[in-house]
UniProtKB/TrEMBL annotation:
Gene Ontology annotations for the cellular component aspect, listed alphabetically: cytosol
Entry annotated with the keyword Cytoplasm: yes
Location of the protein in the cell: Cytoplasm
Protein name according to UniProt: RNA chaperone ProQ
Keyword Cytoplasm: yes
Biological source species: Rheinheimera pacifica
Keywords: Chaperone, Cytoplasm, RNA-binding
Annotated region described as Disordered, given as residue ranges: 129-182
Family matches, as InterPro entries: ProQ (IPR023529), ProQ/FinO (IPR016103), ProQ/FinO_sf (IPR036442), ProQ_C (IPR035236)
Residue intervals of the ProQ/FinO domain: 21-135
Signal peptide: none
Amino acid sequence: MRMPQMKKSEALMTTPTEQNVKAATVKDVLAYLATQFPACFSLTGEAKPLKIGIFQDLAERLQNDATVSKTQLRQALRIYTSSWRYLEATKEGVSRIDLDGVAGEPIDASQAEHASKLLEESKAKAAEKRKAKLAEAKAKNPPPAVTDKPAYKKTPNKKAILPSKSTKVNQKPVSQSQPEKAPVPAAALQPVVTGQVIVGSKVLIKLGQNPMPATVLEVHKDDVTVQLGSGMVVKTRQDSLFLA
């Protein structure tokens, strides 16, 4: 029995697993290299210095691989060997490796010094870029202007505003039914004889210009303690007392 002949278009078709997916970015190329040559390339951790002339080795190994082009390989190698972790790994005495991870010639002092200089310059450029971005962000979104803080308004003391009890008493109108008692004329005052100053006796005591009635509470030699009509207790001398 004769088998049906396949069409030419069907014969050229391949399954998705057989097709080579073209790397689109440098990141994709580096990921592909790390997959194909894990003993040589790495995406994380400590990097290993590469053999000088490793581009030719890569081009030969991948000459039939449509995933990456030579241009992409050059660009990927340039990015990989200028990374901070690669430059930090490029130290004097460390051996370079080939695609299979086999150690080769060691790095000399001049190569290590060159790598250190490139690392320092790269970090300085990165710091300048960060600084420029921060300045640009501040320029686009300036902080609100800081104005002088207004002086705190002192809360008035309500108690100070309120009149005192004495003020209220003074402002209270005098009732006509209780006329103010006229002060005793100074000419009518007669000093109290020493023997007449006894506890409980009524006397006049001169405080200021007007004498006021008081009651003797205590007598101690020439010192006398009296109580005014308002209830205030005053200590004075006998010669300041007068007959009531």
